[in-house]
Write a structure and sequence with these properties.
mainly alpha; 0% strand
């Protein structure tokens, strides 16, 4: 497939390849297409589904303290490492 790209698009692709993150222009385009697919899929909610999910989350109980949960996980990992060592 041959496609025509604007100068700006070519520049963006070249910048990505020159950064070393991508091996080729094809890799950049493939990554861009995957990102586009993910973006389109992320917006696929039925009418009212997003509001229903938010309401379900809000009524599911008290929110967890993220820092407390992370500390509990760190403590569990430390405990397991101490038992194994």
């Amino acid at each position: 497939m041959d496609i025509a790209l604007s100068a700006d698009s070519k520049k963006l692709i070249d910048e990505r390849v020159n950064s070393g993150k991508y091996a080729s222009p094809e890799d950049v385009v493939t990554a861009a297409l995957h990102a586009l697919e993910n973006d389109e899929r992320a917006g696929e909610f039925d009418p009212g589904e997003w509001d229903r999910l938010l309401a379900e989350g809000e009524s599911s109980g008290q929110p967890l303290d993220g820092e407390a949960v992370l500390q509990e996980l760190r403590d569990l990992r430390s405990h397991k490492q101490n038992k194994a060592g």
